[in-house]
Amino acid sequence: MNLTQLKTFKPILKLMRNALIPVLVMVAIPAAALAAPPSPLNPASPAARSIANLHNIALVIATLVFAIVCTLLIYALIRYRRRSNEDPEPEQIHGNATLETIWTLIPVGILVILLVLTFQSLRDIDPNRPTDLTVQVIGKQWLWEVRYPDHNITTTGEMYVPVDTDVRVELTSEDVIHSFWVPQLGGKKDAVPGYLNVTWFRAERVGAFHGHCAEYCGLGHSNMPLEVKVVDQQSFDTWLSSKTNQQTQNVTPTEPDAESDQLTAESTE
Ligand SMILES: [Cu+2]
After folding, report:
1. Which of 226, 137, 228 is nearest to 174 (CA)?
2. Do domains 12-83+93-125 and 133-268 have the same CATH topology?
């Protein structure tokens, strides 16, 4: 390599050196976020697993496309670069029907694969299925109220459910739009005032799953966590009976009915 060629490469090397730290930061921050406990990539429910699988497949395909395109680009830049002014122009490939057919069919094939997989995921997250437990979740500025309509129980900020049980979650809001999101149990679903949205999950293991409002809903938005506590059936039954006793002692009998009538009215609007 002579001196002129070295001078040509110098700005490129400088650019690569300057870009190294921003690129590392761009990779490290999402990687750290994904490794944190409530990661959607560590699913604990069939719907969440379906979404995570779709993400992983799309990521693998996108990475392969990126790697192949970059390799071909770098190869072409080096192999066909003009070394001197006498170099002839490389052979042009405009109008090559075979090549153009190939690079049309490959993206179409990739999109068809992703389309089929997306429809499969949509089927997996569809809440229209028989479920064993119904929970009503109401977003408020700024907390989550969780009601068990079949048991006349209300909790705040936490949801108890039995493991391996299909749970129907009926969502609405009292004020502004909130979004119900427990990353390990499923995708986001908005809680909209005067409207009933439904999602479902089946927690496959015992434990606490952290969730949070995922729609900016005012100054207290960051104070809207939701803890889903998944316990075995026996512990759930014990919790239900202790909570029922506690609430019948504390609450006047007409109050829960009035609240649940209000939710039904809001839902059917
Ligand atoms: Cu919010």
Report:
1. 137
2. no
Residue 9 CA to ligand 1 center (angstroms) comes to: 50
Domain boundaries, the chain: 12-83+93-125, 133-268
pLDDT tens per residue across span 175-208: 999 999 999 998 899 999 999 999 999 999 999 9
Q: Across-strand partners of 229?
A: 160, 208
Residues near 17 by Cβ (< 8 Å), separated by ≥ 6? none
Q: Is residue 93 within 8 Å of 99, Cβ to Cβ?
A: yes
Select from 1.10.287.90, 1.10.10.10, 3.40.50.720, 1.10.3720.10 the CATH code of 12-83+93-125: 1.10.287.90
Q: Is 146 helix (H, G, I), strand (E, B) or coil?
A: strand
State pLDDT tens for residues 222-238: 999 999 999 999 999 99
| CA of 98 relative to ligand 1 center, distance in Å | 53
What φ, ψ does residue 190 adopt, rounded to 5°? -75, 145
What single letter denotes the amino acid at residue 235?
A: S
Separation of CA 213 and ligand 1 centre (Å):
4
Measured in Å, residue 3 CA sits from the centre of ligand 1 at 60
CATH topology of domain 133-268: Immunoglobulin-like (2.60.40)
Query: Exposure string (b/e) for 203-229, b if CB count within 10 Å is 16 or more?
Result: bbeeeebebbbbbebeeebeebebbbb
266 contacts 199 by C-beta, under 8 angstroms: no
